[in-house]
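Thread: assembly with ligand

MN 10:42: here's the input set. Chains plus the small molecule as SMILES. Want everything predicted jointly, not piecewise.
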Amino acid sequence: MTFERKQFLADVGRILAADYATDLSRATRKELYNAVSKAVMQGAYADWSKTSAGGKKRCGYFSAEFLMGRAIFNNLMNLGILEEVEGALASVGQDLNAFEEVEDAALGNGGLGRLAACYLESAASKGLPLDGYGIRYRYGLFRQTFVDGYQHEEGDDWLRWGDPWSVRVERDAVTVRFADLSVRAVPYDTPIFGYRNGVVNTLRLWSSEPVQPFDFSAFNEMKGDSKAKENFEATKICDVLYPNDNTMVGKMLRLRQQYFMVSASLQDIVRKQKAAGKDLLALDSDYCFQLNDTHPVIAIPELLRILQQEGCTFEEAFGVCSRVFNFTNHTIMAEALEKWDSLAIADLLPDVYEQIVGCQKRLENEGLDGSKFYIIREGTVHMANLAIYVAAKVNGVAEIHTNILKTETFRDWYELYPEKFVNITNGITPRRWLLLNNPRFARLIDEKIGTKWHTDLKEIRKIKPHIADMLPSFQVIKAENKRKLAAYIKEHEGVEIPENFIFDVQVKRLHEYKRQMLNALSILYFYYGIKDGSITDFPPTAFIFGAKAAPGYYMAKAIIKFINEIAKLVNSDEEVAPYLRVVFVQNYNVSYAEKIVCAADVSEQISMAGMEASGTSNMKFMLNGTVTLGTMDGANVEICEEAGAENEYIFGATVDEVATIKRFYWPLEIIGQNPALKRALDTMIDGTFSDEAGSLKKLHESLTAGHTPDRYLVLLDFADYVRVKEELLRDYGTEEFWTKCLLNTSAAGKFSADRAVSEYAKLIWHIK
Ligand SMILES: *Cc1c(COP(=O)(O)O)cnc(C)c1O
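BT 11:07: finished. Tokens for the full assembly:
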């Protein structure tokens, strides 16, 4: 369908009148946003009803997190009407960009949730029948501000702006039963528009509601609303996203959330299969399910339960499960591999627990070594083991990560089922992460090689012969992006960054393994070096951080405080002002990432080798023409393979070295040999910074004292990091440096989420 400006404006006007009793000239920003979005949803710019009906085998992507970010610009772009809508609004004196204020849908913590969002977009753009299933959290990831350098958290009331992109589907509501409580699950469907191909898939998020909202008879008998407590419990399930990244919280509410989401999804699907007269034992000819990390793994015993309730035997049901479920592992951190107290599951979900016991018994009956292969052991249910035992395929998310799974984390399982294990290296969608966030650069590429790369990112390698030609324009575009980011940072963080500075960026969740600490210490090293004259002609650099720390993660919050103190020290020192600037942006999210990624000169990917399963921000930066300063970890390894290690800045211990060194590691020796490092460390304890709460002192201790000081080898890698970082900063600005940037873009083809979902479709889901 073609876009008709008059018709569109009439639609918007009609919705404004009907829903808000207003018109185009008087509508508030929020009213206009809702009306414009609804006009797009209601106008047949893409036919949702037709495509999601399908008839083809579909895959359900089960995930506790979907970090979608802002929908409107991406949706308009994918529908091919972004400029048309902008023009239509401009013709009535309204500015589409005003919707920059709209809250992100932040129903995820970080990389794992953003990956799910990228995969949905890519699958739709490739015409693959993939639908997301998750929870419609009332509050998403907390809003972060800094108060006196400390992280402060507030509820993320994302629905404040309305949710015009979703439709409540009352007819598909189901009841989810816990031992103590039954709740109604109501789905909200959001269309996922493919990139200019007319395909529409679905993200289905479940909301929990009371089964019986109000007990009228009890009220009438003057007993009050006896249901009130139960109803409160029911709505509470979807109240809030657990703000944890790489840590498992053994909270009953979290278990309720996990079960709620998979039970609702599976009940709905099974009900529809039955209604269509399908044989449930052949469920796998119509469906498969991807379990995104361990959070949705309880889907396995739930489907076992449902199928037996429908008359299947345990073995039949097990056979179905072993064909429909697949499992993605995202981390090797022990604290993130979910384990539940058996009693907790047995109490809350007795019928589901019985199925887990059934799996354990089945496993025992196979005569395997019980010390290696177990699901329940010593009163604990191991969700990853359950997933590996039952699932058809298990995948890691980068080559190095999958190898670690095979040789370390799940070695025994791999030896038992080698054919189950596959690698699918993560990817990002080039639509949001280049076309949308960096339109001028995208146009520059279009001018050289056409637009095929929009949907086939391998094509982008064709810019290689044009790189020399592109350098001047690329620099102009980067400078423009930097100016825009600097203006935004000035407005929102109050820190001024001169535009001639190098933008050195580390944005990602705050975690000790990601080693923001290493970056922080290097800044102090540069700061004191410049002040005492041991470092001269330092290239002017702004160090930009963005990260949220899980509210209960003490050390992560201490690191935020430390970096904010460093920023205060550095930014207020006139002597170093020509060389250094430090800013920690507040409330890092997808929309902030879009602004930062296109403006960065350096992409810091400096986790301890072996810890970052893949990383995806490394890919976003690469695609936007930014060199990586990083360790041989996660997808950095493959970035080096694709772009050539000579075009990145690599430092630090490798996975093998880490394993050897860790056995005898004693950081005090390193500190003793490096006075500049000692000086940087001492700022945590010598009164340089205010530390009434004593958190900097604890940070210092975590690096230097206790049973395992410096668990993530910050001090070990420090000298090499600083050496390579200085080399990078001094290379900056040369023709050779800019060439490296564009070589990175040209080599980013592999990291398209289109490639990743195509691999899933072919190797795991068997969908077309
Ligand atoms: C891409 C992205 C991430 C993941 O970053 P990593 O550096 O790969 O951990 C986290 N948060 C947001 C908002 C993102 O866009």
